[in-house]
Amino acid sequence: MNSKRKNLIYQTLVNHVAKNGIYDLSTKELSQEAHVAEGLIFYYFKTKQGLIDECASMYDRELMNRCTLLANEGKDIYEVWDILFDELLSSPNGAIFYFDYVNYYGFNPTENNKRAAEYLSAAKIILKDKKQLDDHKLLILWDYISTQLFYYINKIAKHELADTPQERAFIKQIAFSGYRGIC
């Protein structure tokens, strides 16, 4: 399997959805943008829904890997947030794609499925100071914080909200409201 082509399709999908939305995604348009045959898309991704789901999983894994790497380097959740905010805002297409995906198709990390298990594994590393919480509560907490991250990256990237130090401080305050008080 040519991972370069699969990655090209993935990157093209992310950029296409960031620009056009996920609602009327056409594999024909996607193949034209990627300069590959439409059949190649279905070689790697058996259905259009499979394409979208797998690309969302790929993005999610990249992000979780980045978060756990930062946490394993000794960064606390607030530092991880700041680094991710800067990185995602400098290249927001992935965050826009993922936010559209979650809102349109849904992904519930509190469900019992393979992705939720991966999400929990990352949450345990990232939220290491909340070891007293059970798995379900860790998932809810990380889901809330990460959803806020994607929401505000989208708002800023789409110029619906200013990117100022004051706005960032307020956004972070919202995202972590109650975090310190959770035992």
Judging from the principal axes of the Cα atoms, what is the shape?
globular
- Multimerization status: single chain
**End-to-end distance, in Å?**
47 Å
Regions with little confidence, pLDDT below 50 for 5+ residues:
none
Estimate the helix proportion, in percent: over 70%
Total strands: the figure is 0
Count of spatially separate domains: 1
C-alpha Rg (nearest Å) = 17 Å
What name does CATH use for the topology? Tetracycline Repressor, domain 2
Task: Count helical runs.
Answer: 9
Percent of residues in beta strands?
under 5%
Record the SSE blueprint.
Elements: H1 3-20, H2 27-34, H3 38-44, H4 48-72, H5 77-90, H6 93-104, H7 114-126, H8 135-157, H9 165-175
What report would you give on this structure?
The chain is an all-alpha fold and 183 residues long. The chain has one domain (3-175): Orthogonal Bundle (Tetracycline Repressor, domain 2), CATH 1.10.357.10. It has helices at 3-20, 27-34, 38-44, 48-72, 77-90, 93-104, 114-126, 135-157, 165-175. The longest helix is centred in the N-terminal third of the chain and has 25 residues, at 48-72. The protein is globular and about 50 Å long.
In short:
The chain is mainly α and 183 residues long.
Notable traits:
Tetracycline Repressor, domain 2, mainly alpha, 9 helices, single chain, 183 residues
